[in-house]
Amino acid sequence: MSRASTYILVVLTRLVADLPLVWMFYFLHFPQEGPGGLWGGVENGSPFVAFATLHSALARPAARKYVARVAGEDAVRVMYVWVSGITLSLLLYLWRPLAGVVWKVEGAGYWALTILYLMCLGGMIYTTFFIDYADFLGLRVLLRRMKREPPKPPVFAARGPYAYCRHPLYGFLLLSFWIGPVMTLGRIEFALLGSTYVILGTFLEEKNLREELGPAYDRYKGHVPKWIPRLKPWRGLRAA
User: 24 lies in which domain range?
Assistant: First the structure.
């Protein structure tokens, strides 16, 4: 792959990864009320289950090995990001607004809940500073290959918010599902489905991390809580 093609792929992958998330957070903060009833909820649930099933299946080792055989090892993570971004966009496009509002806060309460919601998003962005986000998206290996540098082996370190709990990124995401000045029945359904998926997904992700990182992750898991942060950061694993 040429240098220009690599940069184009990097830019497109960032767009495919980030723009659907921006859409989702806009969708959550400005939920629409519509005519949908019980059947509309079923229609929403079906594509969500399909999205979650595909997203989880592609993250399993067997699926990654198959993609590596077909498209090459370097393409595994990038293809996962593309499938995730496109299917999330389809899910948001197909989502039907439901009739009914659980709460709607106005005045000072509106701005207080909006600020809390934005703080959750800010927390997610802050958390990415303590992981290699380019590697998370599968782009680091492409950039190193373009520079003719050997792949960098994974290095695990408990830094920043990861020294307090094991899943700070997902923790902020879970909070963002439920915090907001307007909560329609449609958003309640999305929050319930999304929360269930995130919580179940962490169990599968930790299994993958254990296989990849071995005893180091067991040690981390034994000292750092999954969701509720420690009062003091754990210093057992630091970056070299």
Answer: 3-223
Task: Tell me whether residue 232 is in a domain.
Answer: no
- Asked if pLDDT for residue 61 goes beyond 80, the answer is no
In a domain? residue 236 = no
Residue 228 lies in a domain: no
Angle between helices 38-58 and 185-213 (to 10 degrees): 10
Q: How many distinct structural domains can be found in the chain?
A: 1
Q: Please state the pTM of the whole predicted model.
A: 0.87
C-alpha closest to that of 186 among 26, 27, 19: 27
Q: What is the pLDDT of residues 86-104, one digit of tens each?
A: 999 999 999 999 999 999 9
Torsion of CA 135, 9, 61, 212, to 10 degrees: -10
Asked if pLDDT for residue 122 goes beyond 80, the answer is yes
Q: Tens digit of pLDDT for each residue in 4-16?
A: 777 777 788 888 8
Q: With CA atoms as reference, report the closest residue to 107 among 179, 180, 181, 175.
A: 181
Tokens found for residue 55: 């997203």
Residue 233 lies in a domain: no
